[in-house]
Amino acid sequence: MEQTFIMIKPDGVQRGLVGEITSTFEKKGFYLKVMVAIRMKLISVDRPFVEKHYEESSAKPFFEGLLKYITSGPVVGMVWEGNNVVATNRKIIGASNPSASDPCTLRGSFAVEIGRNVIHGSDSVESAKKEIALWFPDGTVN
Ligand code: ATP
Ligand code: MG
């Protein structure tokens, strides 16, 4: 079954959105009877770790700000599983910039700035595999 990595970013944790975000994915899974959270942890990550996670953005002008943002407080990392979960969760999350996100999405509902956009979701099955191995190196995936 396909899997994806989801991170609730520090602003999402600080604003008490963990339950609501998790519930959104759960309710979607319940409806489709395919999506189940199989791993979840609250963790503070350091700069080298975030550099690895976002290595594809390392040349971007916002990278330093992104490192500061993601290391500014604990995050929640999760693996979700289900049919087409990578693309479906990206749709539920919404566009990177919340001002352009559909209002029915998580970012469209809960965020206004691209630099504080509440949540991350893997952008492909390949990225998901890399991210799951990075975040859950102890053989997370059952
Ligand atoms: P994520 O990888 O976090 O799920 P994404 O795939 O929608 O987001 P990316 O292009 O991978 O978007 O950018 C990674 C993250 O970097 C964004 O979610 C956002 O937090 C931050 N970011 C992207 N563009 C900007 C920008 N122009 N200014 C500030 N931060 C940005
Ligand atoms: Mg991305």
Description of the molecule:
The protein is an alpha+beta fold. It has one domain: Nucleoside diphosphate kinase-like domain (Alpha-Beta Plaits). Helix content is 42%, strand content 17%. The chain has a 4-stranded antiparallel sheet with strand order 2-3-1-4. The longest helix is centred in the first third of the chain and has 15 residues. It starts with a strand and ends in a 7-residue tail after the last helix. About 5% of the residues have low confidence. The site of adenosine-5'-triphosphate has 11 residues, from helix 4 and strand 4.
Summarize the helices and strands and which ones pair or pack.
Blueprint: E1 3-8, H1 10-14, H2 18-32, E2 36-43, H3 47-53, H4 63-70, E3 75-81, H5 85-93, H6 106-110, E4 119-121, H7 125-135
Antiparallel strand pairs: 1-3, 1-4, 2-3
Note the total helix count.
7
| Number of domains as seen in the coordinates | 1
Measured by DSSP, the beta-strand proportion falls in 15-25%
What is the helical fraction, as a range of percent? Answer: 40-55%
Q: Roughly how many Å is the radius of gyration? A: 14 Å
